[in-house]
Amino acid sequence: MLRVVLRASKYGRAGLAGTRLLSSMISYEKDRAQELIASYERVKAACDAACKETNVNRDVLLLAVSKLKPASDIQILYDHGVRHFGENYVQELIEKSKLLPKDIQWHFIGGLQTNKCKDLAKVECVRYVETVDSLKKAKKLNDTRVQGAPPIHCNVQINTSHEDQKSGLSDEGEILEVIKYFLSAEAQNVELEGLLTIGSWKTSHVDDPCVDNEDFARLAQWKHKIDQALGTNLKLSMGMSADFRQAVRQGSSEIRIGTDIFGTRPAKGDAKII
C-alpha cells in the first residue's frame, strides 16, 4: 500500500492570506505561499508516483529541507500540514525553533560536530539527529539531552562512497560499536532509528532511474548485516532531488528534498531567518 508520511492538509483558516496565521506571528506573502505549496505538491506527487511504481508498502517520509530559507517559508508549509523539516546548521535550527510552532519535528541532517551536540540536545523539539558518526557524539547527545524531553531518534551515517570529503563511518568495528551503544541500557535519551548515506555525485546523477545506485545498495547491505547480527530492523535515509526514485526503489524510508521544494538557496552569508 502506498503511503507517503504526512500528506498535506487542506489550508487552514489563515490559508494563503498571509496576514493572520494559525500558529505564529510570522507573516508571508500570498504569492510566495502559492508558489511554495505548488512546488511541495509537485515533489510529493513525484514521490507518490515513485512509491506506486515500485509497489512500496512502507511509510516514506518526505523531509522538507529548509536550510538557509526564511522562517516564513517553513510557516507556509506548516500551515499546509507539514511537520517534519530538515536543517543543516545548528545555530540556524536553534533560532528557527524559537520562532516557529513547537510541534514541528526538526531533523538535523548536517555535519555533526561534537561541540555542537549539547546545543542540539537542549532543543526539545529536535526529534531527529541523522548524522551521528562516532560513539563520542552518540554519548554526548544522550548525556546532554534536556531533562523531560523525548528521546532523540538517531541515524548512524555511513560513508558508502568512500569519499574523503564526506562524513560518515566505513569501518565495521566502529559502526557496530555505535549501533550497540544505541541499543544499550545506557542510551536512555537517544533511540536508534536507522542508517543514513549521501550518494556520490556520479552515482546520484545516473539518467536511468531503474539502474541501482551502488551507494544505496551498500547501505542496504549494511542494514541487512546489522539486522541479522543484532536483531534490529533499521530504516534507511537516502535519496535527494536527483536520486530519490532509486532510493525509494532500493528501500529508503526517508527522502530529503530541499531545492525542488523551496527553490534556489542564497549564499550562507546572505541567508536571513526573518
Quick overview of this protein structure:
This is Pyridoxal phosphate homeostasis protein. The protein is of the alpha/beta class and 274 residues long.
Helix count equals: 10
How large, in whole angstroms, is the Cα Rg? 18 Å
Low-confidence stretches: 1-23
How many β-strands, per DSSP?
9
The CA-CA distance between the termini, in Å, is: 40 Å
Task: Characterize the main sheet.
Answer: 9 strands, parallel
Helix content: 25-40%
Portion in beta strands: 15-25%
Q: Look at the helices and sheets and give the structural class.
A: alpha/beta
Helix and strand pattern: EHEHEHEHEHEHEHHEHEH
Mean pLDDT: 90
Give the CA-based shape.
Answer: globular
Organism: Zygosaccharomyces bailii (strain CLIB 213 / ATCC 58445 / CBS 680 / BCRC 21525 / NBRC 1098 / NCYC 1416 / NRRL Y-2227)
Protein name: Pyridoxal phosphate homeostasis protein
Cofactor: pyridoxal 5'-phosphate
Family: Belongs to the pyridoxal phosphate-binding protein YggS/PROSC family.
What are the main properties of this structure?
alpha/beta, Pyridoxal phosphate homeostasis protein, disordered N terminus, Ala_racemase_N, pyridoxal phosphate
